[in-house]
């Protein structure tokens, strides 16, 4: 009897694991949409401190609870049939002729079903996230990054005598896609009318002759990867075997970011966000690359700006973020050194975003209402900035960090429409009427925003290339324009140069 008990427990655990795998794959795809193998590997290697607790709860409810209940139910059936099988032969014989299947058949069916479930999970995981393609790419050591990487240094970077301030706002999951069709978006209604107007009035680099943006490429498709690639000109990728980041002590020590460049040239760097800055390695990255002074969810609590027990969504909402930013900017701008003030919004994060007190109910979709609210709040914040004395010497960059991860929100967009991420450069030193650059019908990625941002504040870049990015205020072709979608494959390949110089470098 003991042997049967162990066998039943083994079958139930085997089924439980199979169900977990199957439901986990489905949940990851439905909840995160554009999730990639690179992102999964990255988050395995860095702590998940600061994750929205609702995400964890939803995941547990969808994956663990049903899997456990089903496995428990199957175990109960197996145990019941074992009990039936232990009675007298005459009773056992009668049970065999009843509507119940023989015990051995039931166990075989459960075992085979579990194998099928696991096979489906693995197959679906590969279909959604391209695991086999990733493994193949990692088997090739490519020299592509080594051949195209341009190290930012003072030999090729020259700052103007009068240095301009920089305000860089990462807009969580904001795509140019969210505008209406007539403006260049993909929807009947324009969910970002204020951002659309800002793009028209200022500089918007576009993949079309209307409102557009940058294309998502390998290793740039989540928040930390978006911030990292825009700051350094290289995509974020970790070798599958892991590295010292599991210790979470050093974040790509060999990479040179815009924070490093600005700090070396007399700037003071600041980062403000309404969540836990530790999440995804953001605190380590910005502190270790530019010595940023960080204002996050816990800073607001320490300063008494929010109650000790206050927590909404990922921390505090953007309504508070913009108010706190105004106070900080007034203080920062009163100091003598030029500043780089970087912000990250959060309300438009997947899945449905956060409805704050400023949001209206104009659309059937909650996410659409949150996106529209974010567009208004960003515009109001910029209106305030333009009224301040420091605005004259300040360039502002608005850039989405990545495409939305809500697959349901974009499911009706046709395959012929290319979803791109929003960008807008305001009050730059560039004259759009005199420059040798073009803003429309461009193919570019977040990698190109690194040198472009420096150029927007008057920095001269010899060769107009930094990292893997190209200064869009020049006549140079970007890597996307030169290699097309093959760039995705090149960036996905293993690069010993990347690992040695960026990750393991001391």
- What is the helix/strand order? HHHHHHHEEHEHHEHEHHEHEEHEEEHHH
Share of residues in strands: 5-15%
The coarse overall form would be globular
Give average pLDDT, whole number.
Answer: 87
Tell me the number of strands. 11
Uncertain stretches: 88-92, 95-101, 242-248
Terminal-residue CA separation: 60 Å
Helix content: 40-55%
Tell me what you see in this structure.
The protein has 506 residues and is α/β, with parallel strands linked by helices. The protein has a domain at 2-138. 44% of the residues lie in helices and 9% in strands. The chain is built from 18 helices and 11 strands. The chain has helices at residues 2-32, 37-45, 53-85, 89-96, 103-129, 131-138, 144-148, 193-201, 223-232, 258-264, 282-288, 297-302, 318-332, 366-386, 449-456, 479-483, 486-492, 496-503; strands at residues 157-158, 165-171, 213-214, 268-273, 293-295, 339-344, 394-400, 421-426, 460-461, 465-466, 469-470. The strands form 3 sheets. It has a 7-stranded mixed β-sheet with strand order 3-8-7-2-6-4-5, with helices on both faces. A two-stranded antiparallel sheet has the order 1-9. It has a two-stranded antiparallel ribbon with strand order 10-11. α3 (53-85) packs antiparallel against α5. The protein starts with a helix and ends with a helix. Mean pLDDT is 87; it is low at 88-92, 95-101 and 242-248.
